[in-house]
UniProtKB/TrEMBL annotation:
Keywords: ATP-binding, Kinase, Nucleotide-binding, Serine/threonine-protein kinase, Transferase. Signal peptide: none annotated. This is non-specific serine/threonine protein kinase. One of its GO terms (cellular component) is cytoplasm. Residues 36-283 form the Protein kinase domain.
Length: 283
């Protein structure tokens, strides 16, 4: 694990489905063919509220509810375009490790209102996400998860896509043990198409502090930004803590940010020492 992180960081300075509530007339919202349980929102993020939907055939999906307004309309249309495009690629390749769009539902199909709600209906639904697992966990389990995540990335990268926001909240889990680890990469709406393999994005516009590859904030970046994020997630579950436990991003431009980069280096040095100790215990 230490060698894996060192490759990308080289500074020289020392729901189990049975837990899903069955929608009932008194606590369900009907959206198209889907009964959405109002009893349980399973996730809330910057891009929407995530819940569970079930239809009469017993199909279970994840639903993401977002509010559309004049201010964010273009943003949501862009996100919809990304997830629709990825769904076409993923479906054609029968790739089960990337979330897919089933349909989009709105409560204002004629766009008559200044504000409305829109639902992305997504599959496959995963009963758990990695964020629900609290470390420290055994190195063998961490290794199994890391391998599964790295094996999910080539489909995106080989087709010139960068996920851009891999973190424990965006990793769905079907099964995770020493024999088999089955995961799904979630929240692909902000994925980045990179036909040239290199992307330049304005600093601080996307991604999650703590999981953003530092090169992404300093200018051009590549698919290695996803690999870095997988490594950080692996550290989080192995050690039970994140190496950088601050909300501020030290890789933004400006003296205030540059002045704390030494602290970033120190925390990652400490994390790598802890990883080596875990490796030594496993020998």
């Amino acid at each position: 694990m230490a060698d894996y992180i060192r490759k990308f960081y080289g500074h020289k300075s020392p729901l189990d489905i049975s837990m899903t509530p069955t929608p009932a007339p008194r606590n369900a919202i009907q959206i198209g063919q889907w009964s959405l349980s109002s009893a349980r929102t399973i996730g809330v993020g910057g891009s929407g509220r995530v819940g569970v939907g079930v239809n009469k055939k017993g199909d279970v999906v994840a639903t993401k509810r977002m509010n559309v307004s004049e201010r964010n309309g273009n943003l949501l249309r862009g996100r919809r375009s990304v997830v629709e495009t990825l769904t076409l690629w993923v479906t054609a390749a029968r790739e089960e490790r990337i979330i897919r769009l089933v349909e989009v539902i709105t409560d204002d199909p004629n766009a008559n209102n200044k504000a409305s709600d829109i639902w992305f209906v997504l599959t496959p639904f995963t009963p758990k996400i990695l964020h629900e697992y609290k470390g420290p966990l055994k190195a063998e389990l961490v290794r199994s998860m890391t391998i599964a995540l790295l094996q999910a990335l080539p489909f995106l990268h080989d087709n010139n896509w960068i996920h851009g926001d891999i973190k424990p909240m965006n990793i769905g889990i079907h099964k995770w043990d020493l024999d088999q680890t089955s995961i799904v990469l979630l929240d692909t709406e902000d994925a980045i198409y990179a036909p040239q393999g290199i992307v330049t994005v304005t600093s601080g516009t996307k991604g999650t502090v703590g999981y953003i590859f530092f090169k992404r904030e300093l200018g051009e970046f590549t698919t290695t930004t996803d690999v870095w994020a997988v490594g950080v997630a692996a550290i989080w579950i192995l050690l039970g803590r994140h190496p950088w436990q601050y909300r501020v991003n030290p890789w933004r431009e400006g003296e205030a940010f540059e002045g704390i980069r030494w602290l970033f280096h120190r925390h990652y040095d400490d994390a790598m020492k802890s990883i080596r100790q875990c490796e030594d215990k496993g020998k």
